Amino acid sequence: MRRRRGSEEKQGMRYIRMYKGSEDGAPGVTLYEVDREGWVHRQLQVHAEGVRFSPEDILLRRPVSVGYMVKHPDAEEISAEDFELHWAEFDHRRRFRERIPNPWRAWYGQMSAGGEDRELRWVPSGAHPGEGWARVPGFVRLYVRGGSREAWATQRALFLEADISWVAYHSDDVELPTRQVVEGPGLAAALHGDRFMAMDMLT
Fold it and tell me: CA torsion angle for 96, 152, 133, 108 (degrees, to 10)?
């Protein structure tokens, strides 16, 4: 039985939930998806003022030690399922989606950065486009033509807000975008609940 590409990408990943919302220790939660070498693929910060995603808002360009992180009193290792649930709760609010004409449709993009032209694919369903494409670290739905080098370079270029030109993508395969928006209690509700509880204790 052939293993799905998405499953292969998750092999060796570890997931950390840190109960701090930013680098200065402000209240909130930070989520990390880390590979075997310690490189952070996805990072999300949730705090009272809003959310921040890597790479459009924050960028961590050095490996981390998961073993050290899990020993921190404000951190815990969580399952991939818990991480994806939290991610789905906020993914539709990430700032990068404002750079796409319609994030619920498939798009083909061209970006020039560092003297190189790159081809991008935005796939609303998250399905892998096939051979020759690599998922851009920090995303579920964005791919670049090439391999690991192009993927990490694209991540850095997006942090620097390189220009992207988009055209609607059409293929013989019908792709149905999935609107996965998690409503109801979650990290956001928990943060607001903690905030109100703290206010009650002060009154």
Answer: 30
Closest C-alpha to 96, from 128, 57, 65 = 57
- CA–CA dist 145, 65 (Å, integer): 30
Q: Helix 187-202 vs helix 80-90: angle between axes, to the nearest 10 degrees? A: 80
DSSP state of 91: G
pTM of structure = 0.77
* Residue pLDDT tens, the chain, 203 long: 333 444 445 668 999 999 976 666 667 899 999 999 999 999 999 988 889 999 999 988 789 999 999 899 999 999 999 999 999 999 999 999 999 999 999 999 999 987 889 999 999 999 999 999 999 999 999 999 999 999 999 999 999 999 999 999 876 444 444 444 444 445 555 554 444 333 343 34
Distance separating alpha carbons of residues 162 and 150, to the nearest angstrom: 14
Q: Count H helices, E strands: the chain?
A: 5, 10
Buried b (16+ CB within 10 A) or exposed e, 21-39: beeeeeebbbbbbbbeeeb
What is the spatial distance between Cα 165 and Cα 110, in angstroms, rounded to a whole number?
Answer: 5
Contacts of 80 (CB under 8 A, 6+ apart): 10, 13, 15
